Amino acid sequence: MRFDLITLHPAICEAPASVSILGRARAAGLIDVRVHDLRQWAGGARRQADDAPYGGGSGMVLKVDVVDRAIQAVRTPGCRTVLLDPAAPRFRQADAVRLSTISQLVLICGHYEGVDARVRDHLVDESLSIGDYVLTGGELAALVVLDAVARLVPGVLGNAGSLDEESFTAREGEHLRLEAPQYTRPRSYQGWEVPEVLLSGHHQQVREWRAARSLELTRRLRPDLLGDDPD
Ligand code: ADE
Fold it and tell me: Looking at domain 2-150, what is its CATH homologous superfamily?
């Protein structure tokens, strides 16, 4: 799967997509991540990709013509274009699952002060927010989406089994649940003990304990996931 990030700040995007799981997946050819400087599609000697807003006001707004040229230059058949925007529906695991099945995802990093509304209205397939807070730009949001989608691409996580049990993964016919707590050695630390059942070797009991803890945690911390407290 190919990811194209279009940004005014390529340096923010390079490192997170170059190390650890994403870095290995790139090296193995499982994902192709391309970071593009939006200014290369801006005209004039100053290569200006933003301009003052019509109607006045402070700040600069990303230009629709520059973003259009960028999208046309990088898109391939079957691609989906997404604008990162705090004023958009919230990105969820279900979106990551949906986006992980396409061949190319183009992520457009918005400017903290704004993007010409015609980008959202005419150029992109959808807009996504990663949460109810405002970042200085869309780069960190684009990386969150990239990371959440890329790890679902077959082969990116070496251990495919770990996908089934984790938090936020929908299982058919079930509500989403938070993952049960995990422990590793030492068995006792500062008097803090690992739950006995995990040391028992009884796989069925471990499964039941995890299911019960998962439900209890979800009820306590995220009742909205069980439909008890819809947000
Ligand atoms: N740009 C600035 N804040 C953002 C957010 N919360 N989600 C997506 N893009 C953003």
Answer: SPOUT methyltransferase, trefoil knot domain (3.40.1280.10)
| Residue that is written with structure tokens 């006001």 in the block | 57
- Tell me the C-alpha distance between 211 and 165, whole Å: 10
Q: Note the pLDDT tens digit of each residue in 115-173.
A: 999 999 999 999 999 999 999 999 999 999 999 999 999 999 986 555 656 666 554 34
Residue 175's pLDDT is 67
Residue burial 77-114, b: 16+ Cβ < 10 Å; e: rest = eebbbbbbbbebeebeeebbeebbeeebbbbbbbbeeb
Name the CATH superfamily, with its identifier, for domain 160-226: tRNA(m1g37)methyltransferase, domain 2 (1.10.1270.20)
Of the residues 83, 85, 126, which should be mutated to test ligand 1's pocket, given the most ligand atoms within 8 Å of the CB?
A: 85
Q: For ligand 1, pick from 61, 84, 113, 119 the residue to mutate: most ligand atoms within 8 Å of CB.
A: 84
Across the range 204-215, mean pLDDT stands at: 98
Å from CA of 129 to ligand 1 middle: 5
Q: Residue 184 C-alpha to ligand 1 middle, in angstroms?
A: 36
